[in-house]
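Morning. Coffee machine broken again, so started the prediction first thing and wrote up yesterday's gels while waiting. Chain of 343 residues, entered below exactly as on the submission form.
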Amino acid sequence: MVEVRAQVLGGLVHLAGDTVQVCITITVPSLDPALRAQSSDVCEVLAWGSAQIHCQCSVNEHRVHLPASNPKQAEERVVANADTSFAPHRGERGHVVLSTKPKILFCDLQLLPGESRSFVYKETLPCDAPPTYRGQLLKYAYKITIGTQRLGGPTKLLRVPIRVIVLQGLSEACIYSESGDLAPSNPFLHTPHRDTPRHTALQIIQNVSTRKNVSQYNITNTRGKVVRFCIYKTSFRLGEDIVATFDFSSAEVTCVQYSVTLQSEEIIAESCRHRPSQKPMLVPYSKAHEVCLNLSHTHLLLPIPLHVTPTFTTDLVTKWKQVEGELKKNGDEYVQDGSFLLM
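Came back before lunch.
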């Protein structure tokens, strides 16, 4: 028996452009002395070991229509039928949208009972990779697959799920930072250390999320003005609170209560829709409700969960939309919605 253990160094959450490092340990458990005396061949031999990162996409087939499979996907399905080949996507639902080159960890590894060997697998995620996403219409899932084969046995796979976060504008920033290496260098000056993609991403998030952009909305109905809604910025970080205010001081219609919902909107590309008139899918995350009768001013504090996916765009899904409010007056409803960027 051979045990394979994998530990992702640095955690299971990574940013597109980061280098993923996995420590893979191959161990042969110790045998009982009585069994070891009866066995003539106690050495375990592994023919090979490989590792690869792939992103699997699965869709709601009732609402999303994918293009016909290309020859590459057909070839992958044929290879996946072989028990002795390394097919990381074997048995997975959906199709592969991103796959790194497989790397060989070892060949002809021989271990005695009680021995173990460790290997480090490193791979850099592309900056333009899709994010990890679990929506109603489609899902993107990342997995690190480690495959080994004992001499004369079938291939065994170990899959480790990871989460990948994509930041809009990071790929352009990475290209801009790499182009600086082409400039002539001065040997008498200190060469500054080039920023990593994670450091660049943190700078982008800091610059965008701290930028003030006050937006005001006058919510009205046929009887007159209900409230003035004011939000101070339109770009937020994961885990941040959305702060806004309601101004009822100049209202012409009395408002009894209000509710505000944070939700995402999945807009599928027209070429992948089953029907041209298909409506987007809305998914709520958090909600705030308050009675505002006889109040002239009040504020809104709506938290953004850490598990949601930031704003992204792919060939299938094209938009994230947030903040939908609902005001009520004696059974009447007035709806106001808006959108912002989530990072």
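Residues 82 and 117 are 27 Å apart (CA to CA). Going to sketch it on the whiteboard this afternoon.
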